[in-house]
Every structure is written in C-alpha cells, then in structure tokens.
Specification:
The termini are far apart. The protein is α/β, with parallel strands linked by helices and 322 residues long.
Length: 322
C-alpha cells in the first residue's frame, strides 16, 4: 500500500516533537556500561605466524585458508584422490561406476580432484573434503590432447573449489602456448577470488619424463603464477625437480603399478621433497582400494617405510578392507 504524502507529513511532525534527550536515552547505547580496556599486552610483541607451505608465505588469507584445507598443517603434505580421468578417457577401468568405486574412498583422502560433472553427480556435499576442480577441458584421447579451454570462474565459486587444476603442456608443439595462456588467465581469475591454481604438467608421447624436462615444465608453471604443481616422479634426480621449483609439488600416480611399487614411489617422492601425492589409478584400480589409500596415507603423513606400508596393505586387504 502506498503511503500518502499527507500521512507521511504527520509522521515527520510527530518525530520532530520528540525531545532529542529522549531519543538519546532511549535509542543510544548505555555509555555507563562501557568499560575502558586495560589488558593491552604492553611489552609483548604480537605473534606473526608463518605459513607452513613453501613459497606461499606472501599469499593472502583466503588462499592460505584454502591451501591449509588441502595440505595438513601438521605434516605439510596431502593425499589427493584423483578421479578426473573421464574428461579425456571416458569410463576407464575403475571409474565405470564412481558411486560404487570412488565414494567409499573419499573419507580417506585429504582432497578430491574431479570434474564438475562427477562432483555434482556422485560426490556427497556432506563429505567435507576440499575440492581440486578440473578447471580446464578439451580434446579426448581419440584426438590430439591438450587443446583445452577453461570454464567460468563463477562455476568454481558455485562448487566451492579450493584449487583450480589446469593442464599445462610444456613442449607440446601444437598447444604449449594455448595451455600456458589458460594457466595465466586462471591464476588471474583465481587471485581475484583467493582460489589457488594448481598447474598440472602434461607429458606427451614425444617428451621424456626425466628431471631436466620435469624441472623445466614445473618451473614454467610456477613462474606463470601456479601456487601448486602436479607433475610426475622420476627415479633419478627428482630432488632437482623439487628444489628448482619455489612452490609445493605433488606427484601424479600415473599408470597402474603393482601395489608395492606404487608405495615405493610415494615414499621416494616424499623423501625427495614432494609435498604429497595426487593418485588415481594406483588407488581405484588396486585389488583393495581402501587398503591402498590408507597405506599411502601412512607414508605421506607419517613417514612409514614401503615394506611396512605394503604389510599394512596386505593386512587390511586380508581383513576385508577392500
């Protein structure tokens, strides 16, 4: 209902007739109850807490908060569960029914890495795990990989992403420039909303997974603003990779290995300076995925030796920990 002008004037006249002291005493805070502060801690310097992740000390609060969800502040490491393979591979082995194969594993991870489609269709919003969102998409294994685009940053906000994962194909003759532009644009967009970016190094058939290449690819990602790097492990000189990159590195699990070998790889990577693993096929294609991810956790967070971790895997598998 509209308020007539005449009625509005009457209301204003009524307000004008109220004494200012009455208004002050009725509506202002009671100054008599406000006590002056006394405990200023004079002589005690204010604590300035450092940040536990390499190269992240100058980031803003929002980015640090998200990174502290992904990485354990106690160990400085993370176990990421990757199941984004379907965006280029389709229903690969172990991911035919993600509601059956992946959902039971989520509780044992520190962070999940997946596409927005998988997230919305099978991941329970109540799982409480931070999300590394597959933020780039493009060509499949049926064509030439790495011809990718990125999604709208508002989509990342809608799904509450903690990381934006971008494929970067350093050395790819066709798509190196495109993927690096995708990375820089993602860093710009993520920085605007305090969402860190994870550069994911792609390795084509024509490129060698040695320390020289992995160092270069990872460093290129970091120099272009990536806050975390996901790359492959190499047995020789992997310390060169982790030490030549000024931000944390997590290793990709890569192709399926026998369980003992996968555990040995995880241990060696952490020992050589990696800040965690982002494993997929070596977990969900395992004979006992639940036992496998728990054993990987012990290596990453508690430094368990591979022999002990493999025994743990066998014991959990024998007890029905599939």
């Amino acid at each position: 209902m509209l308020l007539h002008t005449a009625n509005f004037s009457v209301i204003l006249d009524s307000l004008d007739s109220i004494h200012p002291i009455f208004i002050h005493e009725t509506y202002m805070a009671d100054n008599d109850s406000v006590q002056g502060g006394k405990n200023f801690g004079i002589g005690i310097p204010q604590a300035s807490e450092g940040f536990f992740l390499k190269g992240c000390g100058h980031l803003d609060w929002g980015m640090k908060s998200r990174l502290a969800q992904v990485f354990s502040p106690k160990s400085g490491c993370t176990v990421m569960l990757a199941f984004d393979h379907g965006y280029i591979m389709g229903p690969t082995s172990g991911l035919e029914r993600m509601d059956l194969s992946i959902v039971p594993l989520i509780e044992y991870s520190d962070c999940i890495m997946c596409t927005r489609g998988a997230l919305r269709s099978i991941v329970p919003p109540t799982c409480g795990k931070p999300l590394s969102l597959r933020y780039s998409a493009g060509s499949s294994i049926l064509t030439y990989l790495n011809d990718e685009c990125i999604m709208d940053i508002e989509e990342a906000l809608r799904v509450n992403a903690a990381l934006l994962a971008i494929m970067v194909a350093v050395g790819d003759q066709k798509h190196e420039g495109l993927t690096i532009r995708n990375l820089t644009k993602t860093v710009d967009l993520g920085t605007k909303y305090s969402i860190p970016t994870m550069g994911v190094t792609a390795v084509g058939k024509e490129l060698v997974r040695d320390a020289r290449y992995l160092s270069m690819a990872s460093r290129v990602c970091a120099e272009n603003g990536a806050h975390i790097i996901k790359t492959y492990y190499c047995e020789k000189d992997f310390e060169q990779v982790t030490n030549s990159v000024p931000v944390p590195i997590v290793i990709a699990g890569g192709k399926k290995l026998p369980e003992r070998e996968a555990l040995e790889m995880a241990y060696a990577a952490i020992n050589d300076g990696a800040a965690g693993v982002d494993m997929g096929r070596n977990i969900f294609q395992s004979d006992a995925p639940t036992a496998m991810i728990q054993s990987v956790r012990e290596i990453v967070h508690n430094g368990m030796k591979p022999d002990q971790a493999y025994k743990m895997y066998q014991d959990l598998k024998a007890s029905g920990g599939n």
